[in-house]
Amino acid sequence: MVPDLADLLATSRVVSLPMTTRFRGITVREAVLIEGPFGWTEFSPFVEYDDEEATAWLRAAIDFGWRAAPEPLRDRIPVNATVPAVPADQVPAVLARFPGTRTAKVKVAERGQTLTDDVERVRAVRDALGAEGRVRVDANALWNLDEAEHAIHALAPFDLEYVEQPCATVDELAELRRRIRYMGIPIAADESVRKAADPLAVAKAGAADIVIVKAQPLGGVHAARRIVAEAGLPAVVSSALDTSVGIAMGAHLAAALPELEFDCGLGTVALFAQDVADEPLRPVDGSIPVVRPSVSSARLDELQADTERTQWWLDRLARCHRILERGLAL
Ligand SMILES: O=C(O)CCC(=O)c1ccccc1C(=O)O
Ligand SMILES: [Mg+2]
Questions:
Q1: N or C terminus: fewer CB in 10 A for the chain?
Q2: Which catalytic residues are annotated (predicted)?
């Protein structure tokens, strides 16, 4: 079911959230918040995505606002700290934003940096978390096969929980998995799930040990839950640098999965200087609650994007809505 565009626009608010640390090259995150019959929901595809790709994010927004979430099987979700590609000396300050987390995901392979930068950053994270910490890295598909193999050798002494999207293609992931099997370090697929024509292809090809699932790009909580069931692999629910409302969507997905053996990438509200919720879904004691946060209109006013950006987002929402409706008509 797709609500009318007028219903979506009636409550849509475009916000611009300042971040504490540059992440994915951005320092301000924009989002549309929409109030549906089931509560606030979020539409925030990254600005560089085309309308086709952004339409899955609108499906997700509608799913969360206009449909009851599946029955939650847990009421809190353990989360990881997310460490952007910062210099090693900034690691303690980043980790301090994620109180109580035993797991950290560290960005590596950033353009313009070297493997030495990655090694020093990962070392600083391991030093801070100690032997009981869990350290995973995310290369965002930026290594080729040989670079990945070489980098994983260099990072293995820090005892990696898994390596997320080391290379771009399913074939590369499958080959890398063969090459590093003897090391016992699992490979997790992220972009190969959320940006693929077939999100199950990587699992079918046996090219990953773990799937990363994100509610917005996968078309919502219900669709993503189904992808996890069909993939038949352990899943880690992560986010897309969402506001507390988008994080709540992810938390409802994580809460509905029959098994959740890894900490989830849902702590990223900690990277925002401000947020839309009265009680932001920042990690406390290493977890976030499974709730629909209340959004204050005062905060929406404060964080409102300027006229030009607001129009840009509402136009984009309208184009994606048209694509959704056309899809239904086919
Ligand atoms: O998984 C996490 O720890 C947080 C989310 C995250 O890393 C992310 C956020 C925005 C865009 C891409 C990614 C990613 O996992 O690659
Ligand atoms: Mg990732």
A1: C
A2: 107, 214
